[in-house]
Specification:
Length: 240
């Protein structure tokens, strides 16, 4: 009998209930994942926002990066180690942090597109460097959205309250090939975001809910515009 929940069970007939110890890690209560991988990725995105040239950064120059840093420090201070509890203030702070990161990244993408069309003197190496940096922050931002929203967020997933995934990972489809304690962590969502931003479509992880599909669509579209415009402009400048 499959370890999958009823919504994913591929066998014939009604699935039989399983004891908590028999369920795979992503379906039962677990110790919860560590905070530092997501915090490190956020720190990288903030650092990129801080060093972007003035023409590609929202103004006032330091206001939004300072707000991002303040929110990150607050979230880490409230729950520094494992994300195993949902403090009333923590969830809004976490979502707010990702929202601010998204705002700065989207703003920078818009400024980059404007620069591509209005600044013919951009050096191709600078164009590729800053375009790649903005693309990387876009990957991080969408990885955070996937991570924060899938099945209610990291703390809710640790409680094992929701059996229906928003993202269907390979380990969920073929549980016999995965460790029984496996559950998705931030690195898994970062991988999903990276592959979606490079392939412009899902690869081995399928979006199941409407919001997950819309998020992946938005990321692929943003990545496609950024990559095509930056590469096209760089080739034009180099060939001139």
């Amino acid at each position: 009998m499959s370890d999958l929940p009823p919504a994913l069970d591929r066998g014939n007939g009604p699935p039989q209930p399983k004891k908590p110890g028999q369920l795979p890690g992503w379906l039962r209560r677990t110790e919860a994942e560590q905070r530092w991988p997501a915090a490190l990725a956020i720190a990288v995105a903030i650092a990129i926002h801080m060093i972007l040239p003035p023409d590609l950064a929202p103004r006032p120059r330091w206001l939004l990066p300072a707000l991002e840093s303040l929110l990150l420090v607050t979230v880490v201070a409230v729950n520094p180690l494992r994300i195993n509890r949902e403090a009333r203030i923590l969830r809004p702070l976490s979502i707010g942090l990702v929202a601010v990161l998204s705002l700065v990244t989207a703003w920078s993408v818009a400024l980059l597109v404007r620069a591509l069309f209005h600044h013919g003197g951009l050096a191709p190496e600078h164009l590729l460097l800053w375009g790649g940096a903005i693309w990387l922050t876009n990957v991080i931002v969408f990885a955070l959205w996937f991570w924060e929203a899938d099945r209610g967020g990291p703390a809710a997933r640790a409680e094992g309250r929701t059996p229906h995934p928003d993202f269907l990972f390979t380990q969920m489809q073929v549980p016999e090939l995965a460790d029984r304690d496996w559950e998705p962590t931030f690195v898994d969502y970062l991988y999903v975001s990276f592959t979606n931003a490079t392939a412009f479509s899902p690869t081995d992880t399928m979006p199941m809910s409407t919001w997950a599909k819309l998020l992946m669509l938005s990321e692929a579209l943003t990545s496609l515009v950024t990559v095509l415009l930056v590469v096209a402009r760089a080739v034009n400048v180099i060939g001139a």
